[in-house]
Design a protein that fits this description.
Length: 269
């Protein structure tokens, strides 16, 4: 499986606090079936002043540590990017990283306050050639009164990513309710761990995949942790499933899963 959202790099944000913890997180992820992971520390102006250069450096250092520890986990550069007015310009300059230098990036709104003109910012990003991946909308406290915003962001081209723990109820009833609602409506493109530690918010996708499969089928649940994340890392065109959910689903995907190695060829491992 491919995990596109993690805070596994040590010392960069509120995730892993040490190399030892990062290595344990990697072991847990691999034991659960994760083979590829995007390293996506927070970028929050005034709080977590990360950028492409220091994240890439940290990924390289962690790759070396994984090799020394014989942990078979392929890493990719990315970031959990908090909204900012100049975000299109920062992405275009390359100072804020996308996922594996693709057109796709993790797009994180504030958790407790719906910012004004969020759709306008998303449209600016899309018109600039980027594809926002809306992170964990099920956990945003403003979703109750503003679910239509999530629907509209999805309709204009934002992908939707759920947190694995939300789907199994670890974030409470509200996050579980909206996870199931989004899955049932056919709006979920990606499941990711958003792991922050080896003991709290541990890595792992398999339980969430099993829970999602009961609602949308095994093939579609696997698409959320393998096919679509692979296409994102390979920078292939990908339309949100929410925009095309009325279309007839294609047959089984087993043959396409077999080509994952070719799909990711050329990525940073």
């Amino acid at each position: 499986m491919i995990d596109l959202h993690s805070h596994i790099l040590p010392g960069l944000d509120d995730g892993s606090s040490s190399l030892a913890e990062s290595l344990e997180m990697a072991r847990l992820a691999v034991a659960d079936g994760t083979t590829h992971m995007a390293c996506t520390p927070h970028i929050v102006p005034g709080m977590y002043e990360n950028g492409s250069a220091n994240i890439a450096r940290a990924v390289k250092e962690f790759e070396q540590a994984l090799r020394r520890a014989a942990i078979p986990l392929a890493l990719y550069v990315g970031a959990d990017v908090h909204i900012a007015p100049d975000l299109p310009e920062q992405l275009a300059l390359g100072s804020v990283p996308t996922l594996n230098r693709s057109r796709y990036f993790l797009f994180e709104p504030p958790h407790h306050v719906l910012p004004p003109r969020l759709e306008d910012l998303a449209l600016r990003l899309i018109n600039a050639g980027f594809v926002p991946i809306l992170t964990h909308p099920e956990r945003l406290t403003w979703i109750k009164a503003n679910y239509d915003i999530v629907e509209r962001l999805n309709a204009i081209g934002c992908l939707v990513q759920l947190t694995a723990d939300s789907i199994v109820g670890a974030f409470g009833r509200t996050a579980l309710y909206y996870s199931e609602k989004l899955i049932d409506e056919g709006r979920v493109d990606i499941i990711a761990s958003d792991t922050h530690g080896a003991t709290r918010r541990r890595p792992g996708l398999s339980q969430a995949v099993a829970a999602a499969a009961k609602r949308c089928g095994e093939d579609e649940a696997r698409n959320m942790v393998l096919k679509r994340p692979g296409e994102i890392l390979a920078n292939r065109p990908l339309e949100p499933v929410g925009k095309a959910r009325s279309k007839k689903p294609s047959p089984g995907n087993a043959g396409r899963f077999a080509g994952l190695g070719r799909l990711l060829k050329g990525g940073t491992a």
